[in-house]
Write a structure and sequence with these properties.
Elements: H1 2-5, H2 8-18, H3 21-32, E1 35-36, H4 37-41, H5 48-60, E2 64-69, E3 72-77, H6 79-110
Antiparallel strand pairs: 1-3, 2-3
Length: about 110
């Protein structure tokens, strides 16, 4: 299971980062193409510093990488981290489906 491959703190950082709608939006934009932090900030009704903080949270969760190019900080999605997050959610879904199936079996036994 993927959760076994990630430490608890990595999983915590991943879900903390994805729990915010602005950060999810930044990841989506960074998946489609690389953006500077300034270009990302233009899309949100918040300060440049606030967007920088969101990018830092995403970077700590390994969902994006940042590279300094001249005066710009370029943000790019880490597709492998996004895949790991999807795979982790798929694993949780399997667990819940197994539990639902087991509940259905128990209910069927009572009939």
């Amino acid at each position: 299971m993927v959760v076994d491959q990630l430490s608890e703190s990595e999983v915590d950082r991943l879900f903390h980062a994805l729990a915010d709608s602005t950060r999810r939006s930044i990841v989506v934009r960074a998946i489609s193409e690389e953006h500077s932090v300034s270009a990302l900030a233009a899309h949100y009704a918040m300060s440049f510093a606030a967007v920088q903080k969101h990018v830092a949270v995403l970077e700590q969760a390994s969902l994006v990488t940042k590279e300094k190019r001249g005066r710009e900080q370029m943000v790019r999605a880490n597709r492998e981290a996004v895949r790991r997050a999807r795979h982790l959610l798929d694993e949780y879904e399997k667990i819940w489906r197994q539990r639902v199936d087991r509940i259905a079996e128990i209910l069927a036994e009572d009939e």
